[in-house]
């Protein structure tokens, strides 16, 4: 079965070589550091959103006590 969007090892090697040629060896670690920070910030934001949503849903589902 032919999958047109599949990337093989040959294409990955070509992409890596092009990136090295474009940015040079000194710039790549800085780029990867920036990507790592971006991924970390994204994960933190997602986790913060989930915890806020869980807290909100926990408050709504708590039974209300009526004073008698």
Brief write-up:
The chain crosses the membrane at residues 6-24. The protein is built from one helix and no strands. It is elongated.
Overview of this protein structure:
- Helices cover 78% and strands 0% of the residues.
- The protein has one helix and no strands.
- The protein has 68 residues and is mostly helical.
- The chain has a domain at 24-53.
- It is elongated and about 75 Å long.
Strand percentage = under 5%
Low-confidence stretches: none
**What is the N-to-C order of secondary-structure elements (H for helix, E for strand)?**
H
Largest sheet: none
**Total number of beta strands:** 0
Helical segment count: 1
Distance between the termini: 71 Å
Helix-and-strand structural type: mainly alpha
| Helix content class | over 70%
Approximate shape: elongated
Radius of gyration: 24 Å
Mean pLDDT equals 80
């Amino acid at each position: 079965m032919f999958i047109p969007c599949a990337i093989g090892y040959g294409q990955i090697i070509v992409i890596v070589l092009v990136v090295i040629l474009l940015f040079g060896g000194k710039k790549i670690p800085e780029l990867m550091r920036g990507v790592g920070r971006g991924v970390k910030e994204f994960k933190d934001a997602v986790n913060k959103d989930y915890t806020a949503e869980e807290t909100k849903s926990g408050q709504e589902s708590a039974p209300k006590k009526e004073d008698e």
